[in-house]
Design brief:
With about 140 residues, the chain is an alpha+beta fold. The chain has 2 domains: about 35 residues; about 90 residues, K homology (KH) domain (GMP Synthetase, Chain A, domain 3, 2-Layer Sandwich), CATH 3.30.300. About 35% of the residues lie in helices and about 30% in strands. It contains 4 helices and 6 strands, in the order βββααββααβ. It has a 3-stranded antiparallel β-sheet with strand order 1-2-3. The protein has a 3-stranded mixed β-sheet with strand order 4-5-6, covered by helices on one side. Strand 4 and strand 5 form a beta hairpin. Helix 2 packs across helix 3. It is elongated, with a radius of gyration of 17 Å. It starts with 7 loop residues before the first strand and ends with a strand. InterPro entries: KH_dom-like_a/b, OsmC/Ohr_fam, OsmC/Ohrsf, OsmC_Ohr_Peroxiredoxin, Peroxiredoxin_OsmC. This is OsmC family peroxiredoxin.
Length: about 140
């Protein structure tokens, strides 16, 4: 049975001068402010669609990698993932970089790299974003 999560944004004004507030309906997390300036220039305490995508991708990748490592017999001690989403005004999202550092007992580098690469292509958010290039830098601690 599918699970549905909801978020909602209320926007007022023009793109460049207006602003909005995004609500995390499903989780009840605090609302966040969004503006064009936070997307194309300085965040100034506000977020952007790209930052929200980066958060979703970093979270999904970490969860999927944990699952893949555990399934291969190497449950991780910790995984830290940063996702960087590149946005070019007038063009759109042009690339995503995942940087992951993991502490995984008893795994060799080749096995870790193989699982990390497969996870990059297979995690659900990567699947949803496959219209843009996604690169991965994965290292063991």
């Amino acid at each position: 049975m599918p699970v549905i999560r909801n978020a909602r944004t209320h926007w007022t004004g023009s793109l460049e001068d207006g602003g909005g507030k995004t609500a995390f309906v499903s989780s009840g997390l605090p609302d966040v402010d969004v503006t064009w300036a936070s997307r194309a220039n300085d965040p100034d305490g506000k977020t952007s669609p790209e930052e929200l995508i980066a958060a979703a991708h970093a979270t999904c990748y970490s969860m999927a990698l944990s699952h893949g490592l555990t399934g291969a017999g190497f449950p991780p001690d910790s995984i830290d993932t940063q996702a960087s989403v590149e946005f070019t005004p007038g063009t759109g999202i042009t690339g995503i970089t995942l940087v992951c550092e993991a502490s995984v007992p008893r795994i060799d580098l080749d096995a870790f790299t193989d699982i990390a690469d497969k996870t990059k292509d297979g995690c659900p958010v990567s699947q949803a974003l496959k219209a843009v290039p996604i690169s991965l830098e994965a290292t063991l601690r």
